[in-house]
Design goal:
The complex is a heterodimer of chains A (240) and B (94). Chain A is an all-alpha fold and 240 residues long. Chain A has a single domain, classed as Ferritin, core subunit, four-helix bundle (Ferritin, Up-down Bundle). In chain A, 66% of the residues lie in helices and 0% in strands. Chain A contains eleven helices and no strands. In chain A, helix 3 (42-66) packs antiparallel against helix 7 (129-155), helix 6 (100-124) packs antiparallel against helix 7 and helix 6 runs antiparallel to helix 10. Chain A is globular and about 50 Å long. Chain B is an alpha+beta fold and 94 residues long. Helices cover 18% and strands 21% of the residues of chain B. Chain B is built from two helices and three strands, in the order ββαβα. Chain B has helices spanning 31-42, 67-71, and strands at residues 7-13, 21-27, 50-55. Chain B starts with 6 loop residues before the first strand and ends in a 23-residue tail after the last helix. The A-B interface holds A 40-44, 46-47, 50, 145-146, 149, 153 and B 1-2, 5, 26-30, 32-33, 36-37, 40-41, 44.
Chain lengths: 240, 94
């Protein structure tokens, strides 16, 4: 970590791993929420909103182990967040895009990693981490299944759907290294069979952007936080 | 997209011992996705423990035009109802 990053980062939280997982889930929930009312079909709209709410639920439980969930979600700047870079990326090749194939490839990569992290948490963690992991495992299993179903259908669909989901995989793959640090072999064992079933090419391992776990983020996170935090910052302590 | 996705009828069993009942319908490209959409749409609030999805096109339904010939003849045949039996004592749920 650079000297500057050390100075802007907050004091180390009690459970950095839980905070990182919680931030992954929180930022993923916010990204998925962008699909609400804009999914390809009504059915998929509800499915994506369900997954977003699952992510938000896991995020709340995980953040609560690290401190006050509202303060952590609404009052940290981007340098204070410990999510991996993958979750903050926009749902398409460029900011402002909303690409369904992109989001399915993103969800496939993310939910496979979350399933493994939560499984480990349930097996190794002390309470309350083990309980959170056990609950989230079931949800992640469903998210992974949803992403797998669509990846296979898009990969085996039309020429356009196959090309676009392959482009998404190629674009997102570099960010999988930070996502799967320490669990990469197990993660590949989950993801590679899906790509094979979908007739997609497993991208080569080249560029490995990271820094999210140390608070060094892409500019996309700043825009996301600006939207997510604006209400709380304008009306501190606002309640429904 | 829905134009290319057929309609499916969804049946949900609320709990063990009860029959599947019609919950609604949805659009999906195939049976696997229909089942998953049904889970998301119709069991969000723990409404069920089992789901069936059936292609709506596969259902043969009675026609409203045939309502009189189908159902009215049953109206005056009271001997089809088991109302002339005396119930033994202790029998419940009849």
């Amino acid at each position: 970590m650079s000297e500057l990053a050390e100075r802007v980062a907050p004091a180390a939280p009690a459970a950095p791993e839980l905070l990182a997982l919680g931030d992954d889930a929180l930022i993923a929930a916010q990204r998925l929420a962008e699909w609400v009312s804009r999914a390809p079909t009504l059915e998929e709209d509800v499915a994506l909103a369900n997954i977003a709410l699952d992510q938000l639920g896991a995020a709340r439980l995980l953040l609560a182990t690290a401190g006050d969930e509202d303060e952590l979600a609404y009052l940290r700047d981007d340098h204070g967040f410990r999510n991996c870079l993958l979750v903050e990326l926009p749902p398409g090749p460029a900011r402002g895009d909303l690409d369904f194939g992109w989001t399915m490839a993103w969800l496939l990569m993310l939910s496979a990693a979350q399933l493994l992290r939560y499984t480990d948490l349930a097996a190794d963690g002390d309470e309350p981490a083990a309980g959170i992991g056990a609950k989230a495992v079931k949800e992640s299993t469903y998210h992974l299944d949803h992403a797998r179903q669509w990846t296979v259908r898009l990969g085996g669909g039309t020429e356009q759907s196959r090309r676009r989901v392959q482009e998404a995989l190629d674009g997102l793959w570099p960010y999988s290294h930070e996502l799967t640090e320490g669990i990469r072999d197990r993660w590949l064992a989950l993801v590679e069979p899906v790509l094979a079933e979908a007739g997609l090419t497993r991208p080569a391992d080249r560029w490995r952007p990271d820094g999210g776990r140390a608070g060094r983020h892409t500019e996309h996170l700043s825009y996301l936080l600006a939207e997510m935090q604006s209400l709380h910052r304008a009306h501190p302590g606002a309640q429904w | 997209m829905s134009d290319s996705e057929p309609l499916w009828e969804v049946f949900v069993r609320p709990r063990r011992g009860l029959a599947h009942t019609h919950a609604g319908s949805l659009h999906a490209p195939d049976a696997g996705m229909a089942l998953r959409h049904a889970r998301d749409l119709y069991t969000r609030r723990q409404e069920g423990v089992s789901i069936w999805v059936v292609p709506a096109a596969e259902i043969t339904a009675s026609s409203p035009d045939e309502k009189d010939s189908f159902f009215d003849p049953a109206a005056d045949k009271i001997y089809r109802h088991p109302t002339f039996y005396e119930l033994p004592e202790g029998v419940e749920h009849l």
